[in-house]
Structure prediction request, 429 residues.
Amino acid sequence: MTPDLFIENGSIINPVDKSIQQAHVRIRGGVITDIGPDLGVMDEYVVDADKRFISPGWMDMHVHFRDPGQEHKETIETGCRAAAFGGFTAVACMPNTDPPIDTREAIHSIIQRSLNLPVDVHPIACVSQGRLGKNLSQMAELVDAGAVGFSDDGSPVQGGSLMRRALEYSRILGKPIINHMEDVTLGPKGQMNEGLISTRLGLTPTPTFSEESMLARDLMLAELTSGHLHVAHVSTARSTAMIREAKARGVSVTAEACTHHFSLTDEIVQESGFDSHTKMHPPLRTAQDVEAIRSGLRDTTLDAICTDHAPHASFEKETDFVSAPFGIIGLETAWGLIGRYLIAPKHLTMMDAVCKICVSPRKILGLDVPAIEVGQEANITIFDASSDWTFESGHIHSKSRNTPFIGSRMTGRAWAIYHKGHLVENKDR
Prediction:
């Protein structure tokens, strides 16, 4: 614990009104007590934020912490450690655990275990009981217990009637329905994007229209019910265009993009020699799709940036490409990829990027956005947006290590978080 802290020489940014203020910040007992340019150091721990920014703490609204049931991949504690070193003070965890997060007790357990950690963990509960796609979960009861949204992520809601009723309840409860957009009958057991690369490599493909056809159905259901649809991990150009058009006609839809979907294309599967770390779901798509994702983030069609942090143990990934599970870790590389692929090429400003990992996720999930103001609990991230560095295995704080980005150049770095009286400094070199 570091209850008393003095952050000097920082540039405080407010992503809500998009202002920047040069000032020191004093924290006492975990609460911000002074902000100003002329403060002096007292008996506090000092962090020099010269040439760095101070923002409200970031949030990743789409992570998999594998707890309960698959703790050999990740636990709540190790997942929060990875999040903290990535600059995040909050995450929302998906319910595809064993057992799934579909009871009041499961929600309560996750929240309680994160209370004394520097990262808030907000559970997303199941849309259907047991993620079986048959009967709705006890949605009102789960919201009362602390669920911030609903998803059967990894098991798309195939039944249109069930999805319609879920969206009707979402309107009443004020929580989004987060669907993994995939009609599994159109691309069963696909291993990578359908296209020239999959044909050349002889791998079973996952077509873009399996995502887009499900999205078309859900957009119409959202329009019919006025429920809040949130589109998880958008991966195609047509999906982006469909969301843009739906927003223009007033459909209650929000959407997210993953860091790997605006950083990599399906060509890396071939270039890496079938590296299983390039296998994810939805799969990496074409350069045209990547450009569309970047454009969608730029024009606010895509509201939030997330990681879909999906840890797997080494022995699970160290197999042939076809047999390997989908997913990569992403918390420690998120900001470096945002800086390299979005901020440096001017797809997003630094301020807009922070909005997409701080303000938008919380607004989508109905959570308060932290404020850097006197009298407020300190919930902050210290970062820069321009330092060049190389991501190495020693920078991984997750329990798993499945990422294709080891050895990759990054731009911008999270240097510290402070939340709930905990200071976590990123001193990795």
